[in-house]
């Protein structure tokens, strides 16, 4: 994969080294940089994907991040993928979604179930900067794929496709479309198939592009619609078994849902940096805003939320490699909880930014764009309710066994620098079968002889919570174990996801002993206390100076221009 | 069954016509289009002028029709549910003029009243680029010069600064500043010498994109002595009292926006099917709807009590207006995005789903929490009064006006500006009389009149409110360095106010409101139970202790029929019967209503709007 | 439940399955049509997967979570499970 440096903003220092996207995108505040915040904001105002941004990502070869290494790409670690894309989301969510995620979602079913030839074709297409669209959505059915109506009827050596897909990213300019189509009129879960469409080869008279859908967030993303009328598609376009699309989706979307929240961490990383910049510059009642206790608490809480969200996102991404039989639950939990935490953090930060959070111009204009974009990223690719409904049917079994006695996870789950085995899409389980190794981390720590009392006390809050959750899940009336469950079950998934986040934080802390910040107790104690507070538990009073400690770290990272996430890396500019 | 305070709102809503009719100037489609073009809704504002709205900005003693702030509250609410840009763009004249009602000499106030009645646009200029809510850091100066003042400096983020004919400016009149160092000047832009002022370009905003949010810069602008509103140096005091009136009206904006958001989501949830059933029949989805409904009812109760308090207990407004301005926008900032979750990705569409209205509401609403004193400013106001609030609670202080405040059928006394105070000497009677109301409720339960479940709720609340006051008492004030925990306590106090207010409202109005369109809500106290359920849940940390294991929130489910009926029949989501433009032309007012209902009082306010509206200009 | 010896006749499996489905749908066992696709009875695709969990618990075997997708009626499922359990010995 060569990087074309001719038309891009940054310079890659060493052509032999892995190109670094953050450096590559350049200083976001430099008005001369074609992918600066001002340029990004201007494109948003025009409702366009920033063309220079797309060129830069072509130049960097972003698509290669989505292509498995075995097929010539750079995808070998889901956590790394999230971190690379985080650089894009930190700059412009619209590009992240409109250039990145859309293509990734379209390609994943092909990696999961495609033939060698289909995989090769998709890989080649992406590696030459082609665009792939994920043809799932029909507005009438939304998240309920099993009711999708677009039909593909077998007719000799091909299918004939009739129906429409709506609000699909990049549809109007896609080279390939992964199409979710009904291939059997009977209701049920074996009635749909994926068809991999080569758009250049489809007869134009059988398809019609619908007009673009405009949105308030990620305004530049090209959401289109496509109507097929008796459109012939060759039979070998089927991905996997005919009738197997639901199953493919349940595997492939574990990867996409598992990775997206880690990307979205980048949005709030920018929000926090923007508000911190304001709080340091602005004086109110004779003091810099950052010196006002409420503002400081909000900033530190935002930092903690970012760390918590990244812990869960990173651990779940690694679990896709290490615990693929359990990620049906974890990937839904992370897609549910992390965007929610991020959104709550962004809202609180907006209160500190005050009127500036409402202005589209000026030094903090990126904030209001990110507010809109974050909302869009949250609603994209499975809403909160869809994710929760995925977890609910698994709760009783988790409660019965998994939360009491599951094998501990391999340490590599938490050793952020450790290599990972290749992601085996076929190994992703459709059900966790009641096993939950991540929360076993909490019980494991309590059983350790050398456990630190302060940490153990906090962990005890979460294991006790798990016990209560287990009781509550065991008592769930039948209907509350299904997709038509009532609020009680949805609330249980929220609490469970919060416990998972606590376990992820604990695991990360235990295995980064060499990191002077992450290996130290204060951030963990603060993160666990925050999560306990979210559950209405009483974590006890914070030790004196905890907030100051975290604020000092936050400020130090800001002064060195480093990220606020686990990676803690140097940013461009 | 009528509720006369809705009369003006209904007059305006029906006058503007069915907002779903794209042929109307004030249709939703048109409002969304204006927003996307960032165009001021001038045509709709002119329509409101024709409907006579400016008369309700001017108190009767100064020549207008403003008698009841309860009525104005609902008018603002009904405009905001149609379009916040309109509510702000037009309503800002009230904001610009209110300082005159609060602080000017009667003669001055009459002059300002005449301007408003003549259709002049008046704007209020408090904030500056570098100082935001820190008004006493303001740098715009007014120096005595000749017979008047010379004004210099820039005001920024001012609604209607460019469109306004007059601007009410807070200016530093003592170089040293301080609480007596600022004065209010009503600057008539039409009379300023050319070149001595400049309107700043409109700022591009997240929501309310058509609004004229701009600024004005003065350079040696000379204004006459009579521009001074009230005594020199009284600026901060007049402003702090004026915002007690306007903050209540901000709560109305939140109510209106959330009402329409809920309406849109109900439209969708009744039509859309998921898992083979209408979305509205899925328990998780309809719980989201009933929760939003309960939030609206809580917000309405809080706002109505605050608005009635402007007449009946104005001495406590420093507390109650801060509560309303904090609580209602904050609740709706949460409720609206949650409703959006039910719509899914449709919530983002700017053209395709229901005129793209939902995303506009979501963006628009965020400004309500920001302007006219933001969340933190309001909570701070409460924190500063903790000692007085604790004292008042311990002594069970009750302002005699509380009865008029909570009994919707009682006529309200005229607003008396001399009773406005920067600090409440009597604390907050609604909260302080909670124990009395609770005792009354327990008696009703005992007598078999009120459902037993309410007794449990009220006893729980009593403990929570006691505990809250203990924590407030333990707080040691520090004026600048207010810790986050103190803000949290103030937020809880606002919830306690809402809970106490709901209880008072039910007790004092349950008989009269048991009939009529909203009767079912009142009959078995079902609205009260749901509201208290929600408020208890927020006052008490979530968690194991949060809800009994057998509590599945049936209190909310019982409201679903009421919610759906109000939606179907084109009514506001409300404790009180109303009729929106969607419901068609209202029947002419019957000459007399059944006795024993809220409008048995002399129906002064209702009479005023049923007269044919004169064109004012 | 696992560990106990279960009756693995087709009839026994069928009535147990119908009982589970009736439990989820909060209906009486008599209302469950053994030949109607589960989706039509009201068991959605995601929670048809829950059934496989119940099967694994009861009979102490591993089945595909998509079992109910491929054998979409009570009778089909019972027949399938009987085959699996029979071959186990």
TrEMBL record, chain A:
InterPro entries: Acyl-CoA_Oxase/DH_mid-dom_sf (IPR046373), AcylCo_DH-like_C (IPR036250), AcylCo_DH/oxidase_C (IPR009075), AcylCoA_DH/ox_N_sf (IPR037069), AcylCoA_DH/oxidase_NM_dom_sf (IPR009100). Gene3D superfamilies: Acyl-CoA dehydrogenase/oxidase, N-terminal domain (1.10.540.10), Butyryl-CoA Dehydrogenase, subunit A, domain 2 (2.40.110.10), Butyryl-CoA Dehydrogenase, subunit A, domain 3 (1.20.140.10). Residues 1-29 are annotated as: Disordered. SUPFAM superfamilies: Acyl-CoA dehydrogenase C-terminal domain-like, Acyl-CoA dehydrogenase NM domain-like. PANTHER family: ACYL-COA DEHYDROGENASE, ACYL-COA DEHYDROGENASE FADE4-RELATED. This is Acyl-CoA dehydrogenase. Belongs to the acyl-CoA dehydrogenase family. Transmembrane segments: none annotated. Its cofactor is FAD. Pfam families: Acyl-CoA_dh_1. Keywords: FAD, Flavoprotein. Residues 247-379 form the Acyl-CoA dehydrogenase/oxidase C-terminal domain. The lineage of its organism: Bacteria, Bacillati, Actinomycetota, Actinomycetes, Micromonosporales. It comes from Plantactinospora endophytica. It comes from the Bacteria.
Automatic annotation (TrEMBL), chain B:
Coiled coil: none annotated. Its cofactor is FAD. Residues 608-617 have a biased composition (Polar residues). Residues 33-119 form the Acyl-CoA dehydrogenase/oxidase N-terminal domain. The keyword Cell membrane does not apply. Residues 124-219 form the Acyl-CoA oxidase/dehydrogenase middle domain. Residues 577-617 are annotated as: Disordered. Residues 234-382 form the Acyl-CoA dehydrogenase/oxidase C-terminal domain. Keywords: FAD, Flavoprotein, Oxidoreductase. Belongs to the acyl-CoA dehydrogenase family. This is Acyl-CoA dehydrogenase.
From TrEMBL, chain C:
This is Phosphopantetheine attachment site domain protein. Keywords: Phosphopantetheine, Phosphoprotein. It comes from the Bacteria. PROSITE patterns: CARRIER. Residues 8-85 form the Carrier domain. It comes from Plantactinospora endophytica. InterPro entries: ACP-like_sf, PKS_PP-bd, PP-bd_ACP.
């Amino acid at each position: 994969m060569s990087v074309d440096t001719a038309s891009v903003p940054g310079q890659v220092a060493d052509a032999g080294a892995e190109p670094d996207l953050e450096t590559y995108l350049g200083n976001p505040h430099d008005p001369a940089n074609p992918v600066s915040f001002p340029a990004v904001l201007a494109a948003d105002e025009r409702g366009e994907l920033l063309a220079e941004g797309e060129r830069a990502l072509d130049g960097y070869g972003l698509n290669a991040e989505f292509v498995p290494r075995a097929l010539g790409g750079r995808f070998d670690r889901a956590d790394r993928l999230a971190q690379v894309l985080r650089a894009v989301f930190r700059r412009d969510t619209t590009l992240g979604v409109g250039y990145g995620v859309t293509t990734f979602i379209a390609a994943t079913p092909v990696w999961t179930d495609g033939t060698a030839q289909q995989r090769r074709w998709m890989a080649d297409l992406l590696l030459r900067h082609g665009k792939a669209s994920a043809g799932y959505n029909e507005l009438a059915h939304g998240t309920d794929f099993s009711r999708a109506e677009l039909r593909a009827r077998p007719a000799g050596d091909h299918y004939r496709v009739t129906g429409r897909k709506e609000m699909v990213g990049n549809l109007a300019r896609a080279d390939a479309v992964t199409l979710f189509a009904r291939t059997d009129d009977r209701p049920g879960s074996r009635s749909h198939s994926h068809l991999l469409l080569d758009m250049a080869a489809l007869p134009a008279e059988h398809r019609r592009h619908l007009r673009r859908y405009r949105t308030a967030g990620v305004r530049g993303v090209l959401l289109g619609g496509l109507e097929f009328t008796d459109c012939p598609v060759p039979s070998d376009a089927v991905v996997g078994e005919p009738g197997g699309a639901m199953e493919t989706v349940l595997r492939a979307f574990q990867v996409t849902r598992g990775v997206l929240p880690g990307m979205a961490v980048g949005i709030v990383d920018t929000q926090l940096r923007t508000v911190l910049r304001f709080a340091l510059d602005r004086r109110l009642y004779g003091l810099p805003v950052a010196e006002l206790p409420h503002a400081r608490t909000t900033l530190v809480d935002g930092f903690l939320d970012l760390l918590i969200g990244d812990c869960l996102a990173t651990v779940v991404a690694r679990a896709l490699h290490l615990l693929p039989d359990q990620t049906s639950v974890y990937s839904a939990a992370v897609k549910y909880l992390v965007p929610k935490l991020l959104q709550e953090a962004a809202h609180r930060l907006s209160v500190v930014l005050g009127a500036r959070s409402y202005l589209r111009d000026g030094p903090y204009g990126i904030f209001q764009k990110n507010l809109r974009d974050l909302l869009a990223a949250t609603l994209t690719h499975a809403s909160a309710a869809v994710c929760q409904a995925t977890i609910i049917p698994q709760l009783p079994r988790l409660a019965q066994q998994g939360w009491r006695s599951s094998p501990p996870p391999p340490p590599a789950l938490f050793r952020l620098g450790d290599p990972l085995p290749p992601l085996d899409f076929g190994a992703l389980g459709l059900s966790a079968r009641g096993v939950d190794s991540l929360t076993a981390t909490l019980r494991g720590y309590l059983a350790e002889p050398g456990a630190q009392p302060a940490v153990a006390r906090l962990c005890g809050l979460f294991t006790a919570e798990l016990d209560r959750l287990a009781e509550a899940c065991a008592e769930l009336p039948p209907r509350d174990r299904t997709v038509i469950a009532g609020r009680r079950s949805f609330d249980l998934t929220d609490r469970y996801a919060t416990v998972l986040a606590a376990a992820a934080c604990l695991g990360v802390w235990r295995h980064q002993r060499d990191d002077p910040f992450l290996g130290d107790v204060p951030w963990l104690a603060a993160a666990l206390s925050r999560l306990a507070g979210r559950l209405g538990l009483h974590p006890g009073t914070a030790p004196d100076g905890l907030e100051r400690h975290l604020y000092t770290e936050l400020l130090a990272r800001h002064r060195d221009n480093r990220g606020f996430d686990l990676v803690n890396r140097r940013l461009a500019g | 069954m009528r509720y006369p305070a809705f009369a003006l709102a209904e007059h305006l809503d029906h006058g503007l016509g069915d907002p779903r009719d794209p042929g109307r100037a004030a249709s939703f489609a048109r409002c969304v289009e204006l927003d996307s073009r960032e165009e001021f809704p001038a045509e709709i504002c002119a329509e409101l002028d024709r409907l006579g709205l400016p008369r309700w900005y001017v108190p009767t003693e100064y020549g207008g029709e403003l008698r009841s702030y309860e009525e104005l509250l609902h008018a603002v609410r009904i405009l905001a549910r149609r379009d916040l840009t309109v509510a702000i763009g037009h309503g800002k004249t009230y904001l610009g003029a209110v300082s005159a009602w609060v602080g000017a000499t009667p003669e001055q106030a009459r002059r300002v009243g005449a301007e408003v009645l003549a259709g002049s646009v008046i704007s209020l200029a408090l904030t500056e680029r570098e100082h935001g809510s820190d008004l006493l850091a303001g740098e715009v100066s007014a120096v005595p010069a000749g017979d008047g003042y010379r004004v210099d400096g820039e005001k920024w983020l001012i609604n209607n600064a460019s469109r306004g004919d007059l601007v009410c400016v807070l200016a530093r009149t003592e170089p040293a500043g301080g609480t007596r160092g600022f004065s209010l000047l009503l600057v008539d832009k039409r009379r300023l010498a050319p070149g001595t002022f400049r309107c700043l370009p409109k700022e591009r905003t997240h929501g309310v994109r058509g609004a004229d949010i701009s600024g004005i810069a003065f350079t040696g602008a000379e204004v006459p002595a009579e521009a001074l509103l009230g005594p020199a140096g009284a600026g901060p005091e007049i402003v702090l009292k004026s915002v007690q009136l306007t903050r209540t009206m901000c709560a109305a904006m939140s109510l209106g926006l959330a009402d329409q958001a809920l309406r849109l989501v109900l439209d969708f949830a009744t039509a859309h099917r998921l898992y083979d059933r209408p979305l509205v029949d899925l328990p998780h989805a309809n719980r989201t709807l009933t929760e939003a409904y309960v939030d609206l009812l809580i917000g309405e109760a809080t706002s109505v009590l605050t608005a009635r308090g402007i007449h009946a207990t104005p001495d406590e407004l420093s507390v109650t207006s801060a509560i309303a301005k904090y609580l209602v926008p904050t609740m709706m900032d949460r409720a609206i995005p949650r409703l959006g979750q039910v719509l899914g990705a449709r919530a983002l569409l700017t053209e395709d789903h229901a005129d793209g209205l939902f995303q506009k509401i979501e963006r628009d609403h965020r400004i309500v929490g920001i302007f006219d004193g933001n969340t933190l400013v309001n909570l701070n106001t409460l924190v500063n009064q903790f000692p007085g609030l604790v004292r008042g609670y311990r002594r069970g202080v009750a302002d005699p006006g509380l009865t008029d405040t909570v009994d919707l059928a009682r006529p309200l006394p005229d607003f008396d500006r001399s009773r406005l105070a920067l600090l409440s000497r009597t604390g907050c009677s609604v909260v302080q009389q909670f124990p009395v109301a609770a005792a009354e409720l327990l008696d009703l339960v005992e007598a078999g009149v009120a459902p037993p479940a309410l007794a449990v709720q009220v006893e729980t609340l009593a403990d929570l409110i006691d505990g809250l006051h203990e924590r407030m008492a333990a707080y040691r004030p520090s004026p600048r360095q207010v810790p986050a925990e103190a803000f949290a306590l103030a937020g809880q106090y606002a919830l306690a106010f809402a809970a106490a207010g709901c209880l008072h409202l039910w007790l004092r109005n349950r008989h009269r409101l048991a009939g009529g369109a909203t009767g079912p809500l009142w009959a078995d106290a079902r609205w009260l139970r749901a509201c208290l359920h929600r408020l208890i849940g927020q006052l008490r940390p979530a968690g194991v202790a949060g809800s009994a294991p057998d509590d599945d929130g049936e209190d909310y489910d019982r409201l679903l029929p009421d919610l759906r009926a109000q939606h179907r029949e084109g009514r506001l989501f409300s404790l009180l019967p109303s009729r929106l433009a969607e419901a068609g032309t209202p029947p002419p007012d019957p000459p007399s209503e059944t006795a024993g209902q809220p409008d048995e009082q002399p129906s002064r306010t209702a009479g005023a709007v049923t007269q044919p509206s004169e064109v004012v200009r | 439940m696992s560990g106990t010896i279960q009756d693995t006749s087709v009839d026994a499996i069928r009535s147990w399955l119908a009982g589970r489905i009736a439990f989820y749908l909060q209906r009486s066992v008599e209302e469950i049509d053994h030949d109607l696709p589960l989706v039509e009875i009201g068991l959605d695709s995601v929670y048809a997967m829950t059934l496989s969990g119940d099967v694994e618990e009861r009979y102490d075997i591993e089945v595909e979570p998509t079992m109910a997708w491929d054998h979409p009626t009570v009778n089909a499922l019972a027949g399938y499970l009987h085959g699996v359990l029979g071959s186990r010995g």
